[in-house]
Sequence to fold (142 residues):
Amino acid sequence: LLPDEPWILESSMLTLTGLDYHGIVEVKTGSGKIKKVLKFTATGVDIKDLHQLVVGPNGTTAHVEAAKGSTSTIRDGEVTMYTEELKGNLFGIIPITFSPQTPPPLNVPFAMFTDVKVTQAGQFGGTLTVPGLHNYFTGAKG
Fold:
């Protein structure tokens, strides 16, 4: 089961190596909702200027940020990503939006995106390293 609410990843540059696109799959959330997502696996993920946003308690948003200008990494095994939407500039030049309604046209072993925003239904595997990790909440107070 995946979380009911997706989380958002914003990055100035996202690089995926050992990438494999497995197609459109259906996933189930904790509340029983079924949704279609894109399934990817990768053996290496580099995330420059990581900023992650998650729905928090009482109308808040939880933020996870890396140090400005740093590159966060996911290593030590395969990572599986269940993606609702990936929007950015493929190889830094081609504006794209991948989703179950507009899936990737082909499977490539490497991809790089700039100014990327990823809506993730869920993600598993690997070891995430975030230089200068900073957590905080914004929004309504309980």
Residues 89 and 95 are 4 Å apart (CA to CA). The longest strand covers residues 110-124. DSSP finds no helices and twelve strands in the chain.
